[in-house]
Amino acid sequence: FYVDAFMRLYERTGESRDQPSLTIALRRAVESVSLNHADLASDLFCRSKISDVVSCDAGCALVHKPQKHDLSFKTFALSASKAGGERIAMMLDALKLEPRCDVKARLTAFDDYARSLDSTKALEIAHDYRTFYDAPWNAGSLYEELAMRYPRARFVLTVRDSSAWWDDVERELSCSTVKQRTSYERANGLGPLDREAWIQAYEQRNTDIVAFFASRNEAHRLLVLQDLDTAPPKKTWEALCNFLEAWSTCPSNRIIPRTRVKTRKCDVKPVVVEEEHPPTPPPLSSTELSVLERYKAKVRAHLAQQKAPDTKPPKPPKRVHKVLTSAERKRLRRAYPSSHAPKWHPLCEPKHPRGVLYNRIPKSGSASIMSWMSGQLNETAKHKFHLPSTDVTWWTPHVAKHRWLDAPDLKKYLARLANYGKQSRFVTQRHVYYPEGVETTHADGVALVNLIRDPIDRCISRYNYEAFYKKRIPAVDFDACLDGGRCDFRNWDPRTEKHRYQDFPVPKRKEGATDTEWDIFQRLSYNESMRLLADECHDYTVRWFCGHGPECRDPSRPELALQIAKRNVRERYAHVGILTDLENTAQLFRLLLPDFFEGDPSRDPDETDFPALHQSVPKDRVKGGKSKSAPLSPHNLELLYDINKRDMELYYYILELHHRRVRVCLRTNGDAPGKNHGEAGEVPAWATHDVDAILA
Predict the structure, then answer these.
(1) Mean pLDDT highest for which of 237-251, 359-373, 504-518?
(2) Lowest-pLDDT choice from 461-465, 486-490, 671-675
(3) C-alpha to C-alpha distance for 229 and 258, rounded to whole angstroms
(4) 0.85 exceeded by the pTM?
């Protein structure tokens, strides 16, 4: 039945469809011999997300995709250093064979093994992971113990030309410390650097690995891949995928990944005996010095450039004009209507300022709301003022990239806003802390608006942006960064706060950029991004709404900054919306600032106004097709909550203010007039009463 169905489908569609063929075969089998359907117990059939354990050792009669889910099916990359091990690791990542042994666990195992050649710790750590590469897993004869401890494990060995391997290893170790060289030599059973001895040891090790598995009649557990630089990518991928039974995730049309950082060059010869007072390292060569100075000059010029303010508004959202089904209309998230809002209430009273400042918080949905604002400006001009296009100017100032302004810079910034108001009504946006006194820069006033996001979600979003989108920091899960010590959040001091977002100029190959420039760029970007990440994950919203004063970052009085931030949100802002309630946030902006954002009075905002909020990052823009970190573990979530206690308090304070305004200005409309409150067009009797008294 199965073969017949398979061939018929193939003849008709030209595709190999195994699952539909099996479905047809089962149905025909049931009809032909009167079989009855019965569910298979979960303890007989092991499958991911259904069974507690997916393992051939669990006593199941059938295991679904054990190579994908069973931790006993481990994969060890046995490649020597500089022989392609990191490239194999990147290929295993592409196959999504997880969990991978993280850096912290690997270094813990290596330190113990290099110190005493005791494999106990390494074998213990290996129990919890699926894929392994680099030391200690490729060191010495540890592979023999791993093969015996894990009988279903697979091993991958990459081999390259011995002379090329030696050249890379010599350059790498010549720049290492004595301790690093000693650990490497001890773990691999090698003596001091010697070309002939090391090449012989490298070739002998590869031979011994092959002979070991052959002697145990387990050659099927070892895959030997020749030089990855010259091997055809398609055949290499197919060999690896077939070996690991990873057919569904096999990217056979992808090139073999390369490591981003080339082997370092070092002019300093290795020192065999460590001196009591190490000599001062020699100065950089004239070539390297000229490259360094040239790149520093580019950075200084980039940071010092003064661009003219941009007056081009963001692109309005592209709304999808399609007929929705009744079910889709019911699921559509809409704002509450504002047609009968009590505008006489202080919380709902419209304002008519000269301009609007959106001092947007990073990673809080500002692109979505700005796109909507841009579209509303033209809609308001058309429906309210009967103009073909808006007369409101959208100003985007380029004042370096400062977020915190000292007194002279703050004065210049406020003067610039006053100048905008002299020319026309305006909307302006910028990543900047609350600027004290901005409301009075024009006689008609300047209204402030903002959008806030859950502080923990915003911190995680910043990490994903830096690691997986911009690639300024290593693209590892946030858990690995926190547990490994790279993201050191416990020792942060507000007095070391980073005040500018430095986007260093990217070196361009077409303009003659060298590897040295790339190395400098990566180091600068990494350091700046880690500092920025630490800043934005420590009560950042409190400092944002508090402002530029020293009291906003005084570690001895953190509660003062929180109280100032609450006061500013309550008294200085027209409204601070919530990212998770973007529809009602937009509706309140329409109600409170009608001269700018009222738009078409007959149309209330819904989720189709914010398409950018529901778009995912294209896979070709992220490393390895992964756009975000895995969910945080409970202990790291607890850490983020602990260091953002005041941010969380401010977030829930703003959330309550937002919900209160929604209740008073939008939800108190009650039912539409004519249904329960008289004829159409009549205002309900309760609308003449004080809303606060009704809600009490």
Answers:
(1) 359-373
(2) 671-675
(3) 9
(4) no
Percent above pLDDT 70 for the chain: 76
619 pLDDT higher than 80: no
Mean pLDDT (the chain, rounded): 79
- Range list of β-strands (E), 321-367: 355-358
Q: What is the pLDDT of residue 303?
A: 59
DSSP assignment, residue 687? Answer: G
The number of beta carbons lying within 10 Å of the beta carbon of residue 247 is 14
CA–CA separation, 544 and 199 (whole Å): 59
Distance CA 18, CA 3 (A): 10
Rounding to the nearest 10 degrees, give the CA dihedral for residues 641, 642, 646, 650.
10
696's tokens: 């009490």
Q: Which two tokens stand for residue 388?
A: 């073909």
Question: Is the pLDDT reported for residue 468 higher than 80?
Answer: yes
d(CA 505, CA 507): 6
Distance CA 521, CA 613 (A): 31
According to DSSP H, which parts of 312-441 are helical? 326-331, 366-383, 407-423
Sign of CA dihedral 358, 359, 365, 368: positive
Tell me the mean pLDDT in the region 479-494.
84
Contact 100, 90 (CB under 8 A): no
Residue 490 phi, psi dihedral angles, 5° rounding: -80, -25
pLDDT beyond 80 at 23: yes
**Which pair of tokens denotes residue 431?**
């990543």
Instruction: Tell me the C-alpha distance between 129 and 121, whole Å.
Output: 14
Decide if 453 contacts 365 (C-beta within 8 A): yes
Count of beta carbons in the 10 Å neighbourhood of residue 671: 9
Which is higher by pLDDT, 498 or 371?
Answer: 371
Q: How far apart are CA 476 and CA 492, in angstroms?
A: 22
- Residue 541: pLDDT over 90: yes
CB of 77 closer than 8 Å to CB of 243:
no
Provide the token pair at 211.
Answer: 């002979």
Report residue 115 as tokens. Answer: 């110190």
- Nearest partner of 628 among 478, 410, 505, 499, judged by Cα: 478
From first CA to last CA, the distance across the chain in angstroms is: 72
Distances from the Cα of 618 to the Cα of 27, 131, 408, 469, 627, angstroms: 40, 27, 42, 10, 8
For the record, the structure tokens of 248 come out as: 């569904």
Alpha-carbon span 305 to 308, nearest angstrom: 10
User: Which whole number is the average pLDDT over 206-228?
Assistant: 90
Q: In which element (H, E) is residue 425 found? A: none
The residue among 338, 353, 312 whose CA lies nearest residue 599 is: 338
3-state secondary structure at position 115: helix
Q: Answer whether residue 61 shows pLDDT above 50.
A: yes
Phi first, then psi: give them for residue 154, nearest 5 degrees.
Answer: -115, 155
DSSP, res 221 = G
Distance CA(531)–CA(501), nearest Å, equals: 10
Digit-coded pLDDT (tens) for 79-127: 887 788 878 888 887 887 778 787 777 777 877 777 777 788 888 888 8
How open is the CA angle 301-304-306, to the nearest 5 degrees?
115
Residues in the chain: 696
Type of residue numbered 493: D
Interval 312-333: pLDDT, tens: 777 777 655 455 666 666 677 8
pLDDT at residue 678 tops 50 = no
Where b means 16+ CB within 10 Å and e means fewer, 198-214 reads beebbeebbeebeebbe
Residue with tokens 């990440």: 533
Q: What is the pLDDT of residue 538?
A: 92
Which strand (E) or helix (H) includes residue 415?
helix 407-423
Q: Are 565 and 546 in contact (CB under 8 A)?
A: yes
